[in-house]
Amino acid sequence: MNANNNEVATLRCEGRLVGCSSDEEPGAKTTFFSQNEIPNQLVSNRSSEFMHRYFPLTTIESWNDWKWQLRYAFTSIDDLQKIMKLSDKEIMAINNLKGRLPLRITPYFASLIYDSKPGHPLRRNVIPVVEELLVSSSEQSDPLHESSFSPVKGIVHRYPDRVLFTVTQVCSNYCRYCTRSHSVGRLDKLARQDYEKAFNYIASHREVRDVLISGGDPLTLSDETLDYILYNIRKIEHVEIIRIGSRIPVVLPQRITDGLINILRKYHPLFISLHFSHPLEITEESAKACNKLADGGFPLGSQTVLLKGINDNVTVMRELMHKLLKIRVRPYYLYQCDLIPGSGQFRTSVAKGLEIIKGLRGFTSGYAIPTFVIDAPGGGGKIPLLPDYVVEHNDERIVLRNYKGVVCEYPEK
Fold first, then answer.
1. Residues β-bridged to residue 301
2. Residue 371 CB contacts under 8 Å (≥ 6 apart), including other chains
3. Catalytic residue numbers, as ranges
4. What is the pLDDT of residues 235-261, one digit of tens each?
5. Do residues 338 and 378 touch, judged by C-beta distance below 8 A?
6. Which residues of the chain have pLDDT under 50?
């Protein structure tokens, strides 16, 4: 996170420089940037306060540079302890991450949690606790058996007419309940020949009409690499739609630039699946990023994971769904948490998910109600679940119970 003295000297330029009073201050020795101009870019009051406290030498222009955000991400216990007080459980977990999902938090997302308590929902998303080290017999490193459905590196072909294409193993933040915690942040990146083999696989399977680009997070790749990937998929005639799965607008909204939008819009129809988990993630910055994507013509959906102690009640989930619609994101899936190692702290009962869906259906707009699914262990695919609205069903009639508990009847003849 620090620049050496030679780098600092090199980067000095005309204009007033903002500095620390001591090298011991958090953010000291950070790269120096000129304040000749302050661009008219969005920085919320909270982000601004955090930036001036912990990155006092940084300009608004640099803060809004997504590459700067990645460069100065918090990746160690020493980094985090400069900005927040960690609990004993957090310290123990971070000190035992060798061989596990690494730690990575962007400065932007850190600004949302630096003054929080350990139980804060956004903090629990990204800072491990000791319970993460506890593994039950039902948990597996690859619970969806994606490796069993991977004919070539990067491709997962589980469903008949669509494939998953994991183009990177890098994320800007590492969520502690990540389905691919066995691979993200650790496996080698794809080489050019791996991309070419994946394109050839898709081209040779004419049944594939839908390609979901995921990772890791694809939007951590450069504009040039994304353009290369999208161009080679779009030129395959039988591919009808392309989807991108990303959490970038939530954790690194600075990435949603005009340049990125101009590249993505060349490859319509292109859908973007986001991942919001709590209403507090919907900030001025994330709202602006989503609206920018929507203005680019990309249909946006949110795939939310049901998480114990974070969003496992009707009130929080309804607030999240309503706020998503206000920023033009359609609630898509509500996932039962996958059986990855150490996920017991996050998993609720399936009954809890059904309770939440029952508490939404009829009490709010249909657009605000996601489909509750279990991604079946062993590669069984997504299985939708609904509360039990059917009282009786035979050749003559179906008897139903509505959201108020009122029994209704519909004839079958």
1. 273, 330
2. 332, 333, 334, 384
3. 158-159, 162, 171, 175, 178, 180, 338, 375, 382
4. 999 999 999 999 999 999 999 999 999
5. no
6. 1-40
